[in-house]
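Let us practice reading a record.
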Amino acid sequence: MTATDAHAHTHRTIDAVWRIESPRLIAGLARMVRDVGLAEELAQDALVAALERWPSSGVPDNPGAWLMATAKHRAIDRLRRRKLIQRKHEQLGHELELQQDLREEDLVDKLDDDIGDDLLRLMFTACHPALSPEARIALTLRLLGGLTTDEIARAFLVPEATVAQRIVRAKRTLAEARVPFEVPRGAEFDARLASVLQVLYLVFNEGYAATAGDDWMRPGLCEDALRLGRVLAELVPRQAEAHGLVALMEIQASRMHARVGLRGEPVLLLDQDRSRWDRLLIGRGLAALERAEQLGGARGPYALQAAIAACHVRARTADDTDWARIAALYDALAQLAPSPVVELNRAVALAMAFGPAAGLELVETLADEPSLASYHLLPSVRGDLLFKLGRREEARAEFARAAALTRNLRQRELLLERAAACAGDAADAGDS
């Protein structure tokens, strides 16, 4: 291996280490300095030090401990320079003195005592309701996902400066609001947990069906959300909805390879090659769903959606799908978490279970819903139901309208193809 190759290999190793260790590192530092922004800066300082030293000295046996020890030294320096609260300075300095003689392995063991709580605190802090949903997403991906600002910007197709501004403002908001680095209790815990789950689901959904751009999916975002969801579920093992969300993401992720054709084009659920579905992820998802159900109580929105997804993966073929059960589950979801999007999905289930006319009847009630005015799936679903009822020209117009509304190139191509197919069928019918 040449020196250039060795250098590149070390940098790839550092990148991998950072992805794995940065959430632990930032969480541990935030517990000590009680400031998420400062904790991230200290972690970044340690990363810079690793980039400077490891190419020549080699990657240490325990890179996580090395990064933490380096960050803690930087914390002492910064606290001294900035003349922060004397008590905090003395406390942190005393902790460092006690640990200077410890071996790196001992240091990691000590940190691991609190790392689970630290990660949970960091999740609840990054998803604080004082922040906008966009800021929560950006901060979560930065602090817990280990993504760079550029990676987040590319994933959501926004300028890097926009993401950077969101992150800076989020950290400033948390600091100015003096948000405590802690897991809330009681009713506040439930509210904040809902926020954490929502952020993870939003990240996953953006990866599963990209809002805009040239790609149908962004698998990296799905992987980040799923990894963080698994961590969260183990940190709050008695919270059924955390397991419900993991179940939903595992099952949805199991179909990802089958959702894209050879040219990158979308492949809809009923047309997918089910042999390409990932059986390992399906097994994990069904196990998570069972775990959620065993905790008792009424099913929450994520557990209900996971149960719907489970109906699909349990069916050997598309024709075996239990659409009546799916429609019933959507009825329950509509009662628990009513929304126009849930009603639209319920309409699809009703159409599959009881015929397209039943689904179209419900879709027509959503035609004037303001929140769906620019939602491309409303005319897409209506077009599909009209097509199945033989109303080809109306279906063509709906597919064309849906194509004009979507900002995803692959989705637009699919909808335009469906519109063209309607026109062709209509012409054939006229010739006969």
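A brief commentary: Residues 1-115 form one domain.
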